[in-house]
Amino acid sequence: MLFDWVYGLFSNDLAIDLGTATTLTYVKGKGIVAHEPSVVAVQKHANTKRVLAVGKEAKEMLGRTPGNIVAIRPMKEGVIADFEVTEAMMRYFITRAHNRQTLVKPRIIICVPSGITEVEKRAVRDSALAAGAREVFLIEEPMAAAIGAGLPITEPGGNMVVDIGGGTAEVAVISLAGIVACKSARVGGDKMDEAIVQHIKRKYNLLIGERTAEKVKIEIGTAAPTDVVMTMEVKGRDLVAGIPKTVVIDSDEIREALSEPVSAIVDAVRQVLERAPPELCADIVDKGIVLTGGGSQLANLDVLLSEETGLPVFLSDEPEFAVVLGSGAALDELDLLREVALS
Q: What is the predicted pLDDT for the residue at 100?
């Protein structure tokens, strides 16, 4: 008990949105203190791994490292793929949030996909405890996103949220602080980037990297047709000649390339609407669907979803931060946290 009190004195409780693409850290009383890519650069020696860089610095190294250095993304489709590296990454974010103080054992809330298995839950818990947490709460991403988007989740009414991250798209109907119907589709920003890489490889015999594909998606990617066709220059390696080459691509072909991951998200929304009780569906007709997550910023995605479902669709104010702000709000209200946290 005394230790708890001492640790409590030194620590600020944290909320971590441990995403496939980016990790956001929220400190109680300070707000969001870190917004970094979920990438760790590791140097391999015989049987040991040494962490060289985490976050932005490590992302700069993606696809550009010599043989003994690897830039690893330890999260795949919303869950831990590399336990050791995830632990190192979390330790980095925890110490950074506490200005490198070591006598710190914070309470941590971590956001996880709604379709997470017991084994995956344990992996997240264990790596947070190993990284120095004194207590770990897990909260489902759509629930945190709904709180962050300002939806009245504790009231008896249907709220529908679609949270599209790097690895997963989480669709949920929430009422009375509980998830009534949900679907976690393992499709998100990463699958979109992959689709762009494959399209450019097929059509132009040009190989581009992940970072270039992400840039294309942000600059000219759309989910529904736009009035003006946008174009962009893309540089990569010619697969036939083996030398660097530049091609010009347009937004129409990128829209077609993205059609598969986008329709998987639309299908997930349809399935959840089919499973939701009729009373809650009636509420959703009035309130509409709220989009959160970095992937929801794909141009015209709200337009397409609205066309496909016939419901009003809104993008939340700060879609990328909705999940971490929601879990941060739960830190301030412990009663709400106990209600929404996973056992």
A: 57
* pLDDT at 342 (0 to 100): 75
Confidence of residue 6 (pLDDT cuts 50, 70, 90): very low
Query: What average pLDDT does range 177-190 have in this prediction?
Result: 90
**Pair (174, 281) in one structural domain:** yes
Per the structure, the count of domains in the chain is: 2
Q: What is the mean pLDDT of the chain?
A: 87
What is d(CA 180, CA 29) in angstroms, rounded to the nearest whole number?
A: 32
Confidence check: pLDDT of 104 > 70: no
Domain match, 336 and 263 both: no
Range of the structural domain that residue 22 is part of: 2-38+73-143+323-342
Q: Token pair of 81, please? A: 């793929």
